């Protein structure tokens, strides 16, 4: 009697499948992060090729951000209701189609409309990334996973401008700027095919219904806040912009009151206000908002300083950020896997202080070397800042979502991403005050460089102040995430898993 070779156990097959699923959703997250910034570098090429007006260029950049921010919370909740895998596949499919429409746009109007579609489909795709991670991996493994997520965030932060510069400069097949969108096609198609095979479906175990009034209120509030911030400077900060931003506060207040009443009425609100009773979630959301403001200011003024102040090419500006990107990625992996389990909240606070120290070093170097500063001289402050950011981004996602009930993972993930976008938008709005406010009007060509350098230094003082505020707010975070407390069990019992995570269907 011959013995046959043992078959792989179902557990081993499931383990392999979820790591494949992780790679797929992380790739989608990277696509989104790159797409947010890749367009900025290609703007001169788009302007030359399409004859786009300044207003059209503004909408090409802002359209994506507006549609993305307005739809994130709704996208997350749709995943809870109809299935995170299903919404992820719809999102990545739509994102790929929208990227094709952007790449083949015949005129500026078509490009603007395609960018809106791209942002709206990204809002369906992105919230599912953290939701799928939260629903697929047990608590004791999420630290490792969020470490990978932080590394992806670090790479995406700087890869967009660098990739945009390379693709535009290479002018592949004479297409000029178009490959910055077309590069998403093979990645998106591959993600769609592999995602349908390897991602396990998950949704809320309770029968939820879409809160249409909540969708209208949250979308209206986000647009009333973000639209004036995005267009305010170009339009000269009109009175209606300030009234709109003030009115958004009232809309959000009405939203909170309505969601509280709806939760009591049928248990299907768009935003689970009960999440804010989870201390780690509430404190983490506050940190995320403040952190987004700081990053929104820094990344824009940094790009303006290098390209318009120092007169560097897009490619040189993009490659200058490589030390920052590498540092974020390395530190993000180490922070969650090695440091947070041992030191807890202190890791994030150390990251805030390191970022502030890197900014102060950058201010000193910019002032000391003036217009003669080189990319190599910028490397040290960028590495210090990158390590600091890496110590924050991955553990923060872990801290915010670690104690969230699994059935509300989509809602929590949508809120987490939306708050970051709100913070970035507020930061971009503040650039008009802290950066452009320091630059005088009617500058001669000789005055432009020094004026931009001076405004850059002043802006970094603001960002350093924001980071010190973040350091203080972080005291409200739990001293140590729940799954890192020695001997703690996973936050979800093992028994209900099959009911909440249906077996993958092919």
Q: Which short descriptors sum up this protein?
A:
mainly alpha; EmrB-like; globular; disordered N terminus; membrane; MFS transporter; MFS_dom
Helix percent band:
over 70%
Global Rg: 23 Å
- Overall 3D shape: globular
Taken in chain order, the helices and strands follow as HHHHHHHHHHHHHHHHH
Structural class determined from secondary elements: mainly alpha
Low-confidence stretches: 1-9, 484-506
| Topology, number of strands | 0
Distance between the termini: 36 Å
Main location: membrane
Biased composition (Low complexity): 497-506
Transmembrane segments: 20-43, 55-75, 87-106, 112-133, 145-167, 179-196, 208-227, 239-258, 278-302, 314-335, 347-364, 376-401, 422-439, 459-477
Membrane topology: Multi-pass membrane protein
Descriptive report:
This protein has helices spanning 10-50, 54-82, 84-103, 108-136, 139-170, 179-182, 184-198, 212-231, 239-266, 279-309, 314-320, 322-343, 345-369, 375-401, 409-434, 445-473, 497-500. It is an all-alpha fold and 506 residues long. 51% of the residues are buried.
């Amino acid at each position: 009697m011959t013995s046959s070779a043992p078959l792989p156990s179902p557990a081993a097959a499931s383990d392999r499948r979820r790591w494949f699923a992780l790679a797929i959703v992380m790739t989608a997250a990277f696509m989104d992060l790159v797409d947010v910034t890749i367009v900025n570098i290609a703007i001169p090429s788009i302007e030359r090729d399409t004859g786009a007006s300044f207003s059209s260029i503004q909408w090409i950049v802002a359209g994506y951000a507006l549609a993305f921010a307005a739809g994130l919370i709704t996208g997350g909740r749709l995943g809870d209701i109809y299935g995170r895998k299903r919404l992820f596949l719809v999102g990545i499919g739509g994102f790929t189609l929208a990227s094709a429409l952007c790449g083949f746009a015949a005129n500026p109007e078509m490009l603007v409309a395609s960018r809106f579609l791209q942002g709206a489909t990204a809002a369906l795709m992105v919230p599912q990334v953290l939701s799928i991670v939260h629903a697929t991996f047990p608590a004791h493994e999420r630290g490792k996973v969020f470490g990978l997520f932080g590394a992806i965030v670090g790479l995406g932060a700087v890869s967009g401008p660098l990739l945009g510069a390379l693709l535009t400069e290479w002018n592949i097949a004479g297409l000029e700027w178009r490959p910055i969108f077309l590069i998403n096609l093979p990645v998106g198609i591959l993600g769609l095919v592999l995602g349908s095979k390897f991602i396990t479906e998950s949704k809320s175990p309770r029968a939820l219904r879409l809160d249409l009034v909540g969708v209208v209120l949250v979308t209206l509030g986000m647009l009333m806040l973000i639209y004036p911030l995005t267009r305010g400077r170009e339009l000269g900060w009109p009175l209606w912009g300030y009234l709109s931003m003030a009115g958004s506060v009232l809309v959000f207040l009405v939203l909170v009151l309505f969601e509280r009443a709806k939760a009591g009425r049928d248990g299907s609100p768009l935003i689970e206000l009960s999440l804010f009773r989870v201390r780690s979630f509430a404190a983490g959301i506050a940190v995320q908002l403040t952190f987004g403001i700081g990053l929104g200011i820094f990344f824009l003024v940094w790009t303006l300083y290098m390209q318009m102040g120092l007169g560097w090419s897009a490619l040189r500006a993009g490659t200058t950020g490589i030390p920052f990107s590498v540092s974020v990625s390395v530190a993000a992996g180490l922070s969650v896997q090695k440091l947070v389990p041992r030191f807890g909240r202190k890791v994030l606070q150390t990251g805030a202080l390191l970022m502030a120290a890197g900014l102060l070093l950058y201010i000193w170097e910019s002032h000391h070397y003036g217009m003669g500063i080189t990319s190599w001289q910028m490397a040290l402050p960028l590495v210090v800042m990158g390590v600091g950011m890496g110590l924050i981004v991955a553990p923060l996602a872990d801290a915010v979502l670690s104690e969230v009930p699994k059935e509300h993972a989509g809602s929590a993930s949508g809120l987490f991403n939306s708050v970051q976008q709100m913070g970035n938008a507020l930061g971009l709005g503040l650039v008009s005050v802290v950066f452009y406010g320091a630059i005088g009007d009617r500058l001669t060509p000789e005055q432009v460089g020094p004026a931009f350098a001076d405004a850059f230094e002043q802006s970094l003082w603001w960002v350093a102040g924001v980071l010190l505020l973040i350091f203080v707010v972080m005291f409200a975070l739990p001293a140590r995430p729940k799954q890192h407390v020695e001997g703690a069990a996973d936050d979800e019992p093992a028994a209900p898993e099959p009911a909440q995570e249906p077996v993958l269907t092919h």
